[in-house]
Amino acid sequence: MLEHIELFFRSIFIDNMVFAVFLGMCSYLAVSKKVATAVGLGAAVIFVLGVTVPLNWLLDQYLLRDGALAWLGPEYADYNLGFLSFILFIATIATMVQLVEIVIEKFSPALYNSLGIFLPLIAVNCAILGGSLFMQSRDIQTFGLALNYGISSGIGWFLAILTIAAIREKIRYSNVPPPLRGLGITFIITGLMGIGFQSFGGMLTGGDDAAPVEETTAEIPAEKENSTAEAKVFLTRDDAIPETDNGNTKATTASKNSLLSRSDDEKKKIEKELSKKDKEISYTDALNK
Predict the structure, then answer these.
(1) Which domain holds residue 271?
(2) pTM score of the predicted model
(3) pLDDT digits 0-9 by tens, 7-16
């Protein structure tokens, strides 16, 4: 169930036929001058996509893809009729469009006249064919998901043309600069709407796909009172370091107290004195003497 809900919302808002992949733009721009006309064409597109996508899914599963003819017998398992995809998909779409045209002409002559040539042109609408091709390329697994994808893609296209039709009706009373009137401002609004629809991309991200973070704790052992570094600290005993000054030898005796017990100023003073020694005696050697 969650898979159906995710596919439904993704097809309408994130992978919208108009705003994401810009399919069906000819009818979208030509029939979006009035809301009533846009509603009629949008409903026709929903019906055609809702019927043709699952029908083409059946054709793809049991006739077109590699090994699809295995149900006829083992000798047909190696046949691949994928090169017939475009022909059979368009034939299915054209059949459904003719059915829709007959029904609209019978029950709504006014809508049939307002749609004009664009109603039969649904057969060659790239959004209709794109729905079947996307279904095939995304490898939708079940008939129910294919039906869901067809209807939701049609709703996404319907929502796009309905929105732009409502905006174009209001724009007639706005002060649009002359160079942008007509298709110019329509393209600008479409681009802004496309940016807005892309913001829905974060709606289905995260969640269960996020890898759980394991908390690890490490015990840090307490430092020993007499560490190795402290053991090598110089001047912890009564040590005499020879010093040569104008040929006279002097001896400097360190305090019995540890360097750690001395103040910072004393530590710096001792370090400064040792750095001036002519003899290079390491601290460790000085301690061992």
Answers:
(1) 229-288
(2) 0.66
(3) 999 999 988 9
